[in-house]
Amino acid sequence: MKSIAELEKIQRESLTKVNIRRIKQGKNTIGSEESFNTEDGVRSHVLVCAGTGCTSSKSLEILKKLEKEIEKYNLKDEIKIVKTGCFGFCEAGPIIVVYPEGTFYSHIKVEDVEKITEEHLLNGNIVKDLLFKGSIKEDEIVPINEVDFYKKQKRMALRNCGLINPEDVKEYIALDGYKALAKALSEMTPEEVIEEVKNSGLRGRGGGGFPTGLKWGFTANAVDDEKYVACNADEGDPGAFMDRSILEGDPHSLIEAMAIAGYAVGAELGYVYVRAEYPIAVERLQIAIDQAREIELLGKNIFGTDFNFDMEIRLGAGAFVCGEETALINSIEGKRGMPRPRPPFPANKGIFNKPTLLNNVETYANVPEIILKGAEWFANIGTERSKGTKVFALGGKINNTGLLEVPMGTTLRDVIYEVGGGIPKNKDFKAVQTGGPSGGCIPSDYLDTAIDYDNLIELGSMMGSGGMIVMDEDNCMVDIARFFLDFTVEESCGKCTPCREGTKRMLELLDKITSGEGEMEDIDKLESLANTIKSSSLCGLGQTAPNPVLSTLKYFRHEYEAHVKEKTCPAGNCQDLLTYFITDGCKGCTLCAKACPVNAISGKTKTQHIINTEICIKCGACMEKCPFDAIIKK
Amino acid sequence: MDKSYLSDENFKKLDKLIQSNKERKGALMPVLHEAQHIFGCLSLEVQQRISEKMKIPLSEIYGVVTFYSQFTLQPKGKYTIGVCLGTACYVRGSQAIIDKISEITGVEVGKTSKDGKFTLEATRCIGACGLAPVISINDEVYGKLTPDDIPGILEKY
Fold it and tell me: Nearest CA of chain B to the CA of A268: how many Å?
């Protein structure tokens, strides 16, 4: 693209094509304030989620069926079907949203499509029984943005996810896309761009929370003939999928941000390191890169300036440690993904030993907004030391599983109960795990903590990339700690001894405790080992690996002690410490006795059965089969 | 073991692939990904050819291949069953799912069945946490599972 005027022209032309999706967006309105316009004659847009979650429950088949139905009723000129990225509300998937009303259909099956087409799209009557339940409030149907899950959110990094077609650059441009790049290139010096990012208070969203502007400054100041910008999209924390969602739902925001970063630090090539487990994200990002090249938003002399920038995707191959910045750099270079000692930091010696700026996807996604709306606007959101918003992937024992974005400073309680809709089956909240294998478990006493980087660290956890796994009374905290250690042991790269050997010994101790062989001194050993590993490991993986153990020891020591002293698992989770019983709810149907692989269950038909605990191998087959829930374990 | 995947045709594809990556810096990882796609695995013969053509010591290539869990030295079964053991799935009971699959197919985690039909893998989070617990069989994903769903699913294959 040779000039900004060209960009503005595309925006004007495309805006009329997406405006219909904003009419009832109310406070979620994004972009400039032009009025809704139906010039192209389309009266309705049907958005179908094609994120990984919904795709896994057949949303692409739904999309095809929808296209067929529209064809059948000859509605092609009036109704536009849009394949979008993730809406974030994965629990409700597959999701269809109809604009301009903002009608929110949830849990859609292929066979529901006919009904929606005929009743809603053809005759204009909303199909009430397919609506998301929460979108009926006091007998009125509310649009998607007023549903509880979305109401408390502030979507900045996810601003376009579930709103635009990620495979159409024009839709991105319609909603102010590439305007920030245009502004940076035409009105700002690289120093001013860095100053703006510094003043915004943006901190790294990938884990550590390092001030982004400082990083940009370091890389800009490094002197070399070649520099790189890179994006860490190796989202390995189990349960976190915000980076994938941005790549799938709004890939151009990353391209734009990386180009801005390239301009700021003086780099002409950007690497995106994506995990190979994200095929849809990789595909969409590649499409986006190709489109940006085609209209010359990537390439030589962008907007007629002397700034050149291009991008390349590099795939991971299933190594968690590659999320660590120096390991990631080694992997891009084609080596084993093992961390390097720092210093030198990547800002001075990064990819191919050249100065490299490395940020995470969500961090980048915030940049265009900051450049466009100003540092001050951004710094007004959030808390004293953590600015802006944060995306969390809420999972585990929670009603509204999904991705959400809230201002920094929102309390854990608001996230879990207001946005997340609380815990299923009316069970009690026990803890929330933040920060993945590097983080810790936060118990109910701290639910009213305002979420920011520093508060979470104070509680012995961390923000991490934003995974948030909710646990209820049935989750054993020792077992959870064991689960994470199991993960770290397998993912430890083996380079440094504390992590390679230490985490293994920790896992052995945890195995010992959860199988009922533990002694009290094991708990002390575990704690001292954890502290040693924390202080002596080479990279972030090892330094944070003991956190799940340390935080559960801090808040749930009594559970460890119960496993050791009483040889019981209070949560009823650790198989070796459980005994199965049949209660008087037993009707004597004999199903359990038939299911038992070792014939440990005896009893006559229509009388209460008994489990011989000496023979029982605790496989749980009886419990699965019992139609009366009469078998318990404790 | 069947070595039919080491065909001349596949090696030709590999040579072409390496040729097209000649100018690329740090091209080993992308080449390995593609090579695995061509051959189905990165057996020693494949690594040797990459080593010769890219002028990278075999030991270094072997080091890289064995470091990353997605690279495999042996061909996989016709169907790869991946059971997600990410946190969200684990909390919602994916261990019971993996046990059930193992019981039915007789395949241990990380192994391939004798007839070459199934490979069972415990995978990292595949990001479909909203559907936990999930399994994937080749490209097909099944979510919100209980152990009782497993026999029905496996019957399809």
Answer: 15
Six-digit token string for A432: 């929330």
Q: Do A57 and B143 touch (CB under 8 A)?
A: yes
CATH architecture of A579-633: 2-Layer Sandwich (3.30)
B74-85: average pLDDT: 88
Helix (H, G, I), strand (E, B) or coil at B137: strand
For residues A273 and A276, give the distance between their C-alpha atoms in angstroms, rounded to a whole number. Answer: 9
Task: Work out the minimum CA distance from A204 to partner chain B, whole angstroms.
Answer: 21
Q: Which residue has the tokens 């489990």?
A: A611
Question: What is the per-residue pLDDT for A596?
Answer: 84
- Beta-carbon pairs below 8 A across chains A and B: 131
For chain A, residues with pLDDT lower than 70 are 23-40
Give how far Cα A311 sits from Cα of A203, A292, A523, Å: 24, 10, 50
The pLDDT tens digits for A589-622 are 999 998 887 889 999 999 999 999 888 888 777 8
Q: In this structure, are residues B68 and B116 in contact, taking their beta carbons and an 8 Å threshold?
A: no
Phi and psi at residue A441, in whole multiples of 5°?
-100, 130
Substitution target in A49, A54, A55, A56 with the highest count of B β-carbons within 10 Å is A56
Cβ under 8 Å to B: A residues 68-107 = 90-91, 93
Fold classification of A17-146 is Glutaredoxin (3.40.30)
Quick one: pLDDT at residue A424?
93
Tokens of A618: 């605790």
Task: Give the span between the Cα atoms of A316 and A332, in whole angstroms.
Answer: 8
**Number of neighbouring beta carbons within 10 Å of residue A598:** 11
Of B130, B134, B148, the CB nearest to A93: B130
pLDDT single digits (tens) A545-595: 999 999 999 999 999 999 999 999 999 888 888 888 899 999 999 999 988
Task: Name the pTM for this structure.
Answer: 0.89
**Bond into A238 cis (ω within 30):** no
Partner-chain residue, chosen from A241, A315, A624, that has the shortest CB–CB distance to B129: A241
Domain limits, chain B: 8-67, 79-155
Q: Which of these CATH numbers, 1.10.1660.10, 3.40.30.10, 3.60.15.10, 3.40.190.10, describes B79-155?
A: 3.40.30.10
Mapping DSSP to helix (H, G, I), strand (E, B) and coil, where does residue A223 land?
A: coil
Helix H or strand E segment including A359: strand A356-360
pLDDT at position A38 is 54
ipTM, 2 dp: 0.85
How high is the pLDDT of residue A34? 42
Task: Assess contact for B98 and B122: CB atoms under 8 A.
Answer: yes
Minimum-distance CB partner of B125 among A239, A402, A471: A239
Which residues of A fall within a CB distance of 8 Å from B141? 55-56
Fold annotation for A389-472: Ubiquitin-like (UB roll) (3.10.20)
B59 touches chain A (CB under 8 A): no
Alpha helices in A537-620 (DSSP H): 540-544, 547-561, 591-595
Cβ–Cβ < 8 Å for A568, A500: no
- What's the one-letter identity of residue A534? K
Nearest to A462 by CA among A545, A406, A387: A545
